[in-house]
Specification:
Number of helices: 2
Distance between the termini: 20 Å
Order of helices and strands: HEEEEEEEHEEE
Number of domains: 1
Number of strands: 10
Strand content: over 45%
Shape: globular
Helix content: 10-25%
Structural class: alpha+beta
Largest sheet: 10 strands, antiparallel
């Protein structure tokens, strides 16, 4: 029962993040300014490089095993699908984890703008330009939280 409550709470939190981020986005002119230099991937889509991250334990990324290790993290312009009820699609993207230039896994990343982060994120933020990882309550989920120029990128993995 606790596991289901945790999942419901996580979904509700994500919905609040999406709604808050959407409101902030509507107030911003131009919609850009995420503090990153977009680059093109091999497929021609725009990607944002977040930096080097260390995943401290084996996890499941998009249902596939992703071993513990050090990866280059980048966020694509592709919106995560299928759409989840209550989510704001423009703030749910695919994150790719690369080693040696090869994609080793992907998972949905929630993008939270700096203004929305002050409202919806209750824990202490990682310092700008850094990432942190946490095993979440119940031990079933592993969170990667990166702060790049005030924009927060949150990836939640199943522990597998």
């Amino acid at each position: 029962m606790k596991r289901y409550l945790h999942i419901v709470f996580s979904c509700a939190t994500a919905a609040v993040i999406g709604l808050s981020a959407s409101a902030v986005s509507a107030q911003r002119a131009g919609g850009g300014g995420r503090g990153s230099q977009p680059a093109a991937s091999a497929t021609g889509e725009t990607v944002t490089s977040i930096g080097t991250v260390h995943i401290g334990r084996a996890v499941k990324a998009d249902g596939q095993p992703l071993p513990a290790g050090t990866y280059q993290l980048r966020v694509t312009e592709r919106q995560a699908s299928p759409d989840a009820p209550g989510q704001t699609p423009e703030f749910e993207r695919w994150a790719e984890f690369l080693q040696g230039g090869q994609a080793k896994g992907r998972e949905v990343v929630t993008v939270v703008t700096a203004d929305a982060a002050k409202t919806v994120l209750k824990e202490k933020f990682p310092a700008s330009g850094s990432c942190r990882t946490d095993v979440l309550k119940g031990g079933d989920y592993y969170r990667l939280w990166c702060n790049r120029g005030g924009t927060h990128y949150l990836v939640h993995f199943n522990i597998g």
